[in-house]
Amino acid sequence: MQNKRTPVSSRKAPLGNNNLTLTGETHDVIVTSPEPKNPSPYLYFTESDLNRILANLNTLRESVYANAMHDKTGEGVEQALPSFPSVCLIGLGRCGSNIALDVAHLVHSARRFYLSEFNSEQKRVREKDNKPLQWIQRSLHLKPSKVIKPVFLIEPLVMLGDLDKDIAGRIRFSSKGENQTFLRDYNKLKIMDLSEVHAGGSGNAPILGQYLAQIILNKETDNFNARDWKMIHSYLIDSCGIKANQSRLYFFIFSAGGGTGSGMASEFGLAQQYSYMSKTFNIRTPKEINNQSQSFVFEPIFTSGICILPNITNHDIEMSEALHINAGRLLCKYLSEEWNFSYNLESDTKQIHDDDILRRIRPWNAMMLISNDIMRYAEQGDNSEPAQNIDVNAMEKYANQYISQQIFNILTAQAVTTDYDENYFRRAGIDIGETIRLDANDLFMSLAGPVAVAYAESVVTDNGVVEKPKLFNSDSATLDIDDLFFRSIDLPHFNKDTQAIEGVSLLPIESKRYRKALEHYRNNNYDPKYLRELHFFKNCSSVVSIVSLPKDYKLSYVALNKLKTHLNSLFPNTTLKRYALVIGASANLSLTTLIAKSPCLSDDFLTLLVAFIKRCFAKDQYRFDDSLDRAIVEFIRAPELDEKKLESMLCDCENPAKILDTNWYAIKPMYEKKYREIIGDNKKFRSINDIRLTLDSVKNAIRYLREIYRHRISKTQVISLNDDFLIEDDIPSLTESATEPKKTK
Predict the structure, then answer these.
(1) Which residue has the higher pLDDT, 556 or 77?
(2) Which of 82, 304, 390, 639 is most exposed, with the fewest beta carbons within 10 Å of its own?
(3) DSSP letter string over 656-688?
(4) CA 661, 666, 672, 678: dihedral to nearest 10 degrees?
(5) Which residues are CB-contacts of 262 (< 8 A; sequence separation ≥ 6)?
(6) Contact predicate 218/43, CB 8 Å
(7) How far apart are the C-alpha atoms of 292 and 704, rounded to whole Å?
(8) Which run of H or of E encompasses 218?
(9) SS3 204
(10) Judging by beta carbons within 10 Å of its beta carbon (0-12, 13-18, 19+), is residue 326 exposed, middle or buried?
């Protein structure tokens, strides 16, 4: 992992467990580490020379802000370096890179449109005293276009990576590439050219994608031919969380059913987390800090995987079972890593060392789950057109739009003012103090594990300036918060008013059963008893609710309290509830609710997980009946985990050959030879057998499910030491004697 260089003249000083080497210049700091007593299971390369990291970041910044940095306001005036966007999207694999590209194009187009319309609106306001123009408009019954509500979208930094030598050509000649202004103007889009390591994909095998990702991440960046990779690596891996890199939110977008994205995404996440966590244990003295012009001023970051799950219950199309197995492998791996990081308490009885924590890292803080089945449910919800007549390209476009909506509601909820043009808020008249923001630390503390998304939006009336809804009047201008919340947890469907897809991203149970439960819920005045017992709601540990409002629209306290009531009643065991109010980032009123941890108990999640375990772990006698299916359900429900029974049904390691129609033992030496030749250091060699999931991975995944299955919280009760204090109403005899008339003799 360490990159060691020999300085011309140096002196050494202690640096915690490391050594600090100072070259002739006092600001040139090189950190080296002695060989650890317990070798790390991770061999990721991390640049340790701070000056090199800063130089790479400056080079990347110059390419991202090429236009802005060449616009000089005056000669001899030193301009401050622009900050990186607070958000970065990393699209991996064909599916992930396409979605990330769609998000970038969507935001870029929307921003250009709204800026153009907003400037035109300002021009119309300046020309409102033009009497002849007004007379012509009245005479010809020409109505001026309605007032444009400014929508201020931040533009994230977008990284695209695929094990395909023609990824640049694919993007250039895609539908987005036809609009040459987008690729020319959007400098925040960067392509990770990884073809020198591998250029033929991973053959729909996640273990191969994972192994190739390790080769890429274990190789020193100086040995890459691609010039941009060094800058991208410093941005994504080496500098996350430090002062010089202002990005605090990272989204890794990928398809769980493929090979490249499913295999690479977790490795890229682990490399970033390993570098980030290593910095937390790098304690330096004040003298060392003062010797640096740019130090590792450390700040929290939040990373999330956005996982696209394959179709499961589509009766019209036979889905490839390999997609289910690949997705199940990713879910099993993630739950095992999440259990080790968050719940494994074996080390509580002994002293915890830094290297113990670095062995328990997880790839992301959270993993958002979005099912491909949302498009099928949306089709079924609209009976006006048969499902077979739906344009596939249009459906993919709407699916990407659904994902884009969720991403950018989170982005705008934590966006800082540096993400916007300095004149945005002044021109729009938006008071930034009215916005309740979620920073990266809020998300870090609130979201962990598998996460599902509930989304809905409504069109609010606009007559120039929208009046505040009346509190006690149910006229048409009043927002129906009950209906908005219901649509957010409903099966995915089209909103014809907004042309958006609403609903929950992952169904709690099978669609027919869930649809019937929702009908009872709505027909009984939104009584939570019809949904609350579903594990999806009952075992949720935390929710984050983001309300996005158009400019000048005021949300009443009654509506906000109704929303809180719905969340409290439907999610009775949440440890934490967070709210964010975003103003001016949407043309419509939208509600996004992020549901943490309990989605792992949904039917789709368990189906994919068990499909992988059954195919790649089960012994022969348990592969073709439902005995293992029923056993895993019992393992989750039982008071104690029967490990001996589990061990009797499963093999010690996964068998990758079960999803490949070829000889695994012929493929294995080919990729290991590639590893040896590219890395060139036998000490860093790792066999592909070492990254196979083991029986312990399955055990940890089941332990995580058992933990969430049993999650509940105690309710706060009033405690008093004054139980013996009597009030007059509690003493009826005294009251009666006081009111009883006196008897006369």
Answers:
(1) 556
(2) 639
(3) GGGG-SS-HHHHHHHHHHHHHHHH--GGG---G
(4) -90
(5) 93, 206, 209, 254, 255, 256, 326, 327, 329, 330
(6) yes
(7) 43
(8) helix 206-218
(9) coil
(10) buried
Tokens of 24: 């002739």
The C-alpha angle 527, 410, 122, rounded to 5 degrees, equals 110
Tell how far CA 384 is from the center of its chain: 34
Which residue type sits at 228? D
pLDDT in tens, 637-652: 999 999 999 999 999 9
Q: Which two tokens stand for residue 620?
A: 């022969």
Give pTM, 2 decimals: 0.82
Q: Which residue is associated with the tokens 């009775």?
A: 572
The pLDDT of 604-630, averaged and rounded, is 93
DSSP-derived secondary structure letter, 436: B
Give the closest residue to 299 by CA, choosing from 367, 358, 354, 245: 245
pLDDT tens digits for range 544-590 = 888 888 877 777 778 888 888 999 999 999 988 888 877 776 778 88
End-to-end Cα spacing for the chain: 106
Sign (positive or negative) of CA dihedral 612, 615, 617, 622: positive
Nearest to 236 by CA among 207, 265, 215: 265
In whole angstroms, give the CA distance from residue 113 to residue 2.
47
**Cβ atoms 545, 592 nearer than 8 A:** yes
Reduced to 3 DSSP states, what percent helix, strand and coil does the chain have, rounded to the nearest 5? 45, 15, 40
DSSP state of 164: B
Q: Are strands 542-549 and 576-583 parallel, antiparallel or unpaired?
A: parallel
- Tokens encoding 33: 């580490």
Residue 65's alpha-carbon distances to 48, 57, 58, 68, in angstroms, are 26, 12, 10, 5
pLDDT beyond 90 at 175: no
